[in-house]
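Deviations from the work plan: none for this task. Representative record:
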Amino acid sequence: MSGEAIGIQGVTKSFGDFVAVDDVNLSIAQGEFFSLLGPSGCGKTTTLRMLAGFEVPTEGRILLEGEPVEKVPPHERNVNMVFQSYALFEHLDVEGNIAFGLKRKKVPKAEITTRVAEALELVDLSSRAKARPNELSGGQRQRVALARALVNRPRVLLLDEPLGALDLKLRRQMQIELKAIQREVGITFVYVTHDQEEALSMSDRIAVMSEGRVAQCGPPEEVYEHPKEEFVAGFIGISNLLEGKVESGGRVRIGDDCLAVPDLGEGHADGETVQIAVRPEKVAVDEFEGEPYRIEPDMFTVEGEIESKVYLGVGNQLTLKLVNGSRLVALEQATYRMRADEQWEVGQRVKIGWHPEHCMVLS
Amino acid sequence: MTHKRFWEWFIFPGGIWIALLFAIPLFLVLALSFGHVDDFGRGVYGFSLDNYKDVFDATYVPVLLRSVGYALATVVLCLLIGYPVAYFIARYGGRYRYALLAALVIPFFVNYLVRTYAWVALLADQGLVNNLLVDWGLTESPIQMINTPYAVIGGLVYGYIIFMILPLYGSIERMDPSVIEAGKDLYGSPLQTFIHVTLPATQAGILAGCVLVFLPAVGDFVSAQLLGGPDTYMVGNLIQDQFFAASNWPFGSALTVVMMIFLAVWMVFYLRRASKGEAEVL
Ligand SMILES: Nc1ncnc2c1ncn2[C@@H]1O[C@H](COP(=O)(O)OP(=O)(O)OP(=O)(O)O)[C@@H](O)[C@H]1O
Ligand SMILES: [Mg+2]
């Protein structure tokens, strides 16, 4: 990774009074796998379309390798897009689809032939070169769309929920293939998705968007472990939110209990109300009586009862009701020591604990 | 299965209707075309190929060719005018789409003959257009507009353009707009994208529109009769004359049969293309 492939500087896009993209600033490095993640309608597609040239920003600048391109029409930009609906040309066969961009660029015939063959090889479709798009399966159509874009060797590849139309199993498989292809060709990918798992597993960096803004941008680990705001914590994974009051000495009072939060940070006045978030997989649950089994000595513990239990096979998802009335979700993995269906009754009194360093303080 | 049998009975009313009102007259026309005219000018059945010889006589061949030429010119003009109109309504009509389509269709509720008379009133030597041109001093004397091939073709275009616009509209509206964006994204200029993406994607509508305009235009007699003169005589006029003015029914029948065979060839060509197109869609 070296140099900036895309710079988005203060970009705003309004449709009439409606602001679809609101003052977005991003810098995407060359060779990066960059994801735009967010709920429906948050402006992901609009952002991507501005990069492709289908929309002109109302305000701000878009740089492709340092060159401003806001006013450059799509066919003169060295970026290619994989459309959510694939948008294959039904009147052309697979080869014809893939060769389309090269023909428009007036690449010599012989070179087109070899490059199309290479692209077919890359997406493992050599045997289907003469097929029409309507004769292909969903996954194959997806790969044609990918090959059709990659064959042009664009500086940047834009992908708008490219796996959205596939079933879960094929989706997982294509995620792995896509990532492998991206490593192989080394092209910058800007990947739009609303699937947080997909974004976490594939990306070098993620920009989480909400209502046209970028709420947080960083590597998957950072966005997951250190969400800066409630929206990010809630959108990526489930988060348990507990309200607390800041006390002196970096401690936060939750109900009757007090907990020292290492991550509290500066600038919180005593008595201020803050949100504490804890990931479900960080919450340990033990029987109220008896030897601690999962809860460790330096954990912060509270008392509660099991309100409901969902059996997941690899574990249980427990909803816990604390004494002060607030609720927590705990995700408990089955281990080699026990099966997930062997424990917990609804209504059972339990001890609940987590390490204070796993508390995320949200502003 | 018994249900299916039951519903199959419903083919009979329509089937009988078609047999009585379509097949039998058609058979009579075919039979008469081998006949001749008796001394009193009545058609008499017989068996001779004389009428068919006459059809391909040097007098009538130019009329046949002219009809095909006018119809082809009409198709081309309808396509050139109709495509942008259909494209605009389908892609940019937004919520006014149906209002715009209705505005196009409503004039066609008026009888074709009446609409063509309106053109006579407009284009005649003492018509509205010429009067205005003379009044404004753009020309000294009226321009000959009526009785020209242009007027006849203009009348045909006006008469049948809706049959071009509607199928075009349908196919443009069904097209996935992201396909056009894909064309542009893959380095196609707007013109290249239109030629290599939009046109092929709307091919079915183009073909349907061309056939739907060509078939009635080639057999039309109203436009040539009202807006044309002796030089713009079309096969429709010729047939009409045989049945009314000249009262030579057997020859009129032979002309009709030749026209039908000619059109049937086109129809078969179209249906084969269309069914192939459909197989590709599935
Ligand atoms: N051409 C347009 N005219 C008016 N509003 C638009 C237009 N395009 C997008 N919008 C609005 O902008 C907002 C963002 O749209 P966008 O398509 O970018 O969302 P998205 O994040 O891609 O959502 P999804 O996950 O559902 O695809 C939406 O509220 C949408 O209604
Ligand atoms: Mg979208």
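Chain B has 14 helices and two strands.
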